[in-house]
Specification:
By secondary structure, the protein is mainly α. It is 66% helix and 0% strand. The chain binds protoporphyrin IX containing FE.
Amino acid sequence: MTEGPLLWFLNRSTGLVALVLLTAATVLGVLALGGRPGTRVPRFVVQSVHRNVALLAVVTVAVHVLSSVVDEFVDIRWWHALVPFTGDHERVWLGLGAVAVDLLLVVTVTSLLRHRMRRRTWHALHLSVYPLWLTSILHGAGMGTDLGAGLWWVTLCCAAAVAAAVAWRLVRASKTEDDPTDPVRDGMTMPLRRSP
Ligand code: HEM
């Protein structure tokens, strides 16, 4: 029960889905930041989808980690998922996965507490999504087995999506540099809650 193809498939499929969801959440976060009020899709809609996709990613990562710890085929303990580079199995690639989990915890907890934090502090911590996404993609590429070209296509598409979103954001930021009314100017999103 704690070993076998079912757990292995669960582990691999949740890993892949988690990577796609994290990529989607990152892209949506960049789009929510760069969108202009009054465009076709209102920014609050993009932000709301961004938050829900990110939440789904957190749940998927939790199932992914749990299935790799429960699976006794390889020796992965729960602390290997939190303290990077402490396990013997695929130390580097698994360690990068643990770094991603730690960063995901930082981003999730600070997002839940953001109304109690200074906006700039929250935003600085939220930028951890970039190393989080990068360590996830490296971990997936290093750990992935047996999927041949499929995994590489997913990895490539995820990398292309984030690169395109960041490039679009940089171009947009340079165009709006002189516009004092644009929230993108100082790298801030619109407040999630309006002040009374
Ligand atoms: C944000 C965090 C993480 C993400 C997005 C992620 C994603 C992935 C992806 C995409 C794969 C490749 C799946 C495939 O073979 O097709 C994978 C493999 C794997 N991951 Fe993660 N992972 C994360 C964290 C972790 C952690 C912390 C652990 C364990 C402590 C872990 C354990 C594994 C294992 C054992 C495999 C290999 C499965 C196989 O044998 O093919 N992952 N992960």
